[in-house]
Amino acid sequence: MSSASSGTGASTVIDNIATLVTNDPSLGDGSRLGLVRDAAVVIEGDRVVWTGDSRKAPATDNRVDAGGRAVIPGFVDSHSHLVFAGDRTEEFNARMSGRAYSAGGIRTTVAATRAADDAELEANLTRHLAEALRQGTTTFETKSGYGLTVADESRALRIAARHTDEVTYLGAHIVSPDYAGDPAAYVELVTGEMLDACAPHARWIDVFCEKGAFDGDQARAILTAGKARGLHPRIHANQLSHGPGVQLAVELDAASADHCTHLTDADVDALANGATVATLLPGAEFSTRAQWPDARRLLDAGVTVALSTDCNPGSSYTSSVPFCIALAVRDMGMTPDEAVWSATAGGAAALRRTDVGRLAPGARADLAVLDAPSHVHLAYRPGVPLVTQVWRRGVREV
Ligand SMILES: [Zn+2]
Question: What is the pTM of this model?
Fold first, then answer.
């Protein structure tokens, strides 16, 4: 396979694609994935300008032969926690030896993150981003939440904002250990001085709505304060137990309710009738030996489902979207087509983006070439590094 990078204005065709996932139902077989067989993609600058039958591709400056492989949109990982220091190997090891997961382990990472300097935090972030890119992730969201002071939260967001537009203020990850006896005062900080310092660096505001973290009233106060400052809400909801998070997400028009493991029928109905995406994070259930979210139930109800890694050092230390796809198919009732859609177009929906997660004219030229003839192999061949090329904004990066 030849390697080519498109310069500004130059056009490149990637052809001889056995299966192309466009996520545009108006293309190819008319399915939700918009599958085109024997396909080509034409890239100009940072955009896709043409997709279709290889034999009909327009003339271009450069040509890349995909060699009968599959091409999919780059993964849109809409939920990660990558501004942190240290790791939690011992906690994982203990948990796999029988101890239960609770929200409290976050404090370990808070201590390590506060102790790290900016360069160390940024180096750790870029190392994980490179790791994710090699596995096909071209868009990612990431959060603060391991600083829990005004200075530490705002610096986490400043560092994240150098690497992505999808930055989320999560001062309300847990009640800061400094406020252990006075959670109301911590909520006041999160919705006051900390919000003032963080809002300029973030697009989103998030809260961990869970027993041991923040209850429904606190979560509502935090997200409402964020909305008033121009941040858009997303929520860690219904992960470890039933709770008010999902209903609150729909009520506040959150872009996404994340986790959604413990749902009532009313929660599922609310998601089906609202504009909030349900983001499922199977790496967390895998890494904590917890109950799987029921993706089939959500999909059958008509809920829009995203799949994401939740990459973080405590409860889901994987940056691999293909791994999450395999888990979702094996253990959560998703078909391979649904899982691939959820990890690409679904992630884009969870970030309210239309320029990524699809490969149609006008979309960003973010794509992955798989060393396999079909996207189904992502689930069929779990744990195998199938991503062999990654293009981002029209440039081959892997
Ligand atoms: Zn999370």
Answer: 0.96
Asked if residue 86 and residue 208 are part of one domain, the reply reads yes
Which residues neighbour ligand 1 (ion) by CB within 5 Å? 310
Closest of 81, 78, 141, 79 to residue 109, by C-alpha: 81
Q: Which CATH number covers residue 375?
A: 2.30.40.10
CA distance 255 to 367: 24
- Residues constituting the chain: 398
Q: What's the pLDDT band for 4 if we cut at 50, 70, 90?
A: very low
Ligand 1: distance of its center to the CA of 147 in Å? Answer: 15
Distance 117 CA to ligand 1 centre (A): 23
Q: For residue 174, report the distance from its CA to the centre of ligand 1, in Å.
A: 12
- Pair (15, 124) in one structural domain: no
> pLDDT tens digits for 153-204?
999 999 999 999 999 999 999 999 999 999 999 999 999 999 999 999 999 9
Measure 360 CA to ligand 1 centroid, in angstroms: 30
Q: Is the pLDDT of residue 122 over 60?
A: yes
Residue 5 domain flag: no
Is 81 in the same domain as 69? no
Tokens linked to 305: 């489902």
| Host domain of residue 258 | 76-350
In a domain, 69, yes or no: yes
Q: Are strands 256-259 and 166-172 parallel, antiparallel or unpaired?
A: unpaired
CA of 281 to the centre of ligand 1 (A): 8
